[in-house]
Design goal:
Two copies of one chain form a homodimer. By secondary structure, chain A is an alpha/beta fold. Helix content of chain A is 45%, strand content 16%. Chain A contains eleven helices and twelve strands. In chain A, the strands form two sheets. Chain A has a seven-stranded mixed sheet, sandwiched between helices. In chain A, strand 1, helix 1 and strand 2 form a beta-alpha-beta unit. The first copy, chain A, is globular, with a radius of gyration of 21 Å. Chains A and B meet through helix 8 and helix 9 of A and helix 8 and helix 9 of B.
């Protein structure tokens, strides 16, 4: 098992990426190939005292890197020598089993689609983050890869999300819900009506019907299916509201000496709570539907999150997910694969 | 100023509605007309010791009432003698200056559109709740009245939201933002591209561009413009996440004696915080774009929320909002009024 890692993607690259890779290499029993500027990597490893660890990793030397300001298409056009582009091409060529990057999400979606390519029959890849709910976590599918979706894409998101949750996350019978403005079958817009029909008729998933946004944090289902526009709004609002509430609570805990003392008493438990709500715990988001496993590490990831993400990337690559989806959506099969 | 109130709408009707009306009548200097079953109202008032207060209100006697299970169209078809339908018809006939109901939201939107009618030139009414943000509150427009929207509708939502926030809520120069998946002008789907253009060109509002969902709780703008599908998802997720986080905190505060003592110390401040996040504080949501003021009171409203809602309904009716919008969108005017 060899994972190719974009050493120059994310807010804390290359230092935290390198540290996370060193931990992963030791703890997870995986081989690593780092895409990025070799000279800079050697210097960084030396500074961090990780030269022996880096020596065990392959380096895919390249001089360029994408930034958050680059257009998604830059991975194909303006910056073919960027660490992300080089890593994805190496993946496509079979020089590794999976690719992980904490860099520009839009570019990673474009690169997964155009360089790693989609599974034959898959209409769109999905960006599929795991988010905390009252018990455990759920997958949001799609969280922003495709802003304009057709009903058969939503069906595929359901199929892929379900397969991922089962094979990679170990959930026995994932409940798939369609994010909608009401629970009744006729609710929502034309896209939702048609997607509801398709999902209802699909025998390969456990479809629980429409789910309202209010119920999503309360364990409405394990896979929330939605178009990428709505999904991205949900993803970012989820994060924004949780942060805003926690900020307000922090405000309460610091506004007086009495409150500070109270805060000290519950400090450990509050920290635990914050951790349970932190989607960094899940390391990032798989990009599903690509013909090879591609994993988005959180942009702000530090070493331990990078390591968690690489563990999930390994699980993704080992799961047989890609093969299962390829079979399920192969042209001619039911799951919309013949309607390309 | 006479406000017509649906006495049989909402989870706590008619008791809490009647109590709220009695308070409003006394404190706000408004006249009230209650739509609903006269016999039941008299009995309820007697039980609550509010017979003298009810005696000062007009009663629009009718025997039926809508439930949350009724289809929105029931206000027109199956239940023309419901308290909501009777109240809306009285409004349309000029027997009151505004109408408020805590009943079925979908039915209220249909009734506002078909019975109170839209302002001439307004393409769709909007359900426009006020939600808390880090400082104060913002308006979500549309929060679920129209799941399928065209760009010119989003322009009108911006115009109407801005006018409401200025005239009714007293915000000097409301910042209008378009909810989108990124801040750059080219982000989002076709609807967003076209709406961005229209909003940018509109001289009557202070358009601040696209706003990401993550920034909405952090004072990104005063009016969040979006289609009703996305708006409803945002509204309900906002509520769901805030509740889920508060539930988790409650869990921390009750899990041990030490934590319970800490909770006691911060109790008052936490209560204050919860209040600042409670959208019940704003009493409900105006339905804007109707030719007469229609106000949705929260379904779970108790007396004090009903009173708050009636104060806002009064402010809405007194504000000159309807006249301003009628002028702004009159057929032939710039704001999309000529593209019916």
């Amino acid at each position: 098992m060899k994972i190719i890692v974009d050493a120059f993607g994310g807010d804390n690259a290359p230092g935290e990426i390198l540290r996370g890779c060193a931990q992963a290499q030791m703890e997870l029993g995986i081989q690593l190939a780092l895409a990025g500027d070799k000279d800079k990597l050697l210097a960084c490893a030396k500074e961090l005292g990780l030269s022996p660890q880096l020596a065990q990793m392959e380096i895919l030397d390249c001089k360029d890197a994408l930034t958050m300001e680059d257009e998604p298409s830059a991975v194909l056009k303006e910056k073919p020598d960027s660490s992300m582009a080089v890593g994805l091409r190496a993946l496509a060529q079979g020089r590794g089993d999976a690719f992980a990057s904490a860099g520009n999400s839009g570019a990673l979606v474009v690169g997964a689609t155009m360089i790693a390519k989609r599974i034959r029959g898959v209409k769109r890849v999905a960006f599929a983050p795991l988010l905390p709910k009252s018990q455990g976590f759920f997958m949001l599918c799609d969280g922003g890869a495709s802003v304009d979706c057709r009903p058969e894409m939503l069906l595929q998101f359901g199929l892929m999300g379900s397969a991922y949750m089962k094979r990679v996350m170990g959930i026995e019978k994932p409940r798939v819900g369609l994010a909608n403005v009401g629970t009744e079958a006729h609710k929502g817009d034309e896209l939702r009506h048609q997607a509801f029909e398709l999902l209802s008729q699909c025998g390969d998933i456990h479809f629980v019907g429409n789910v309202e946004a209010r119920d999503i944090p309360y364990d409405a289902c394990d896979v929330v299916v939605t178009d990428g526009f709505t999904g991205n709004m949900l993803l970012k609002l989820y994060e924004g509201v949780a942060m805003a509430v926690m900020d307000k609570i922090k405000g309460v805990f610091t506004q007086s000496l009495k409150n500070k003392l109270a805060a000290a008493a519950v400090y450990g438990d509050m920290k635990q709570l914050k951790k349970s709500m932190d989607y960094n715990e899940y390391g990032g988001a798989p990009i599903i539907g690509a013909a090879k496993p591609v994993f988005k590490i959180h942009g702000s990831a530090k070493a331990s999150t990078v390591k968690n993400a690489l563990r999930l990337t390994r699980d993704y690559a080992q799961s047989g997910f890609v093969e299962q989806i390829a079979q399920a959506v192969a042209p001619g099969k039911a799951a919309g694969g013949d309607q390309q």
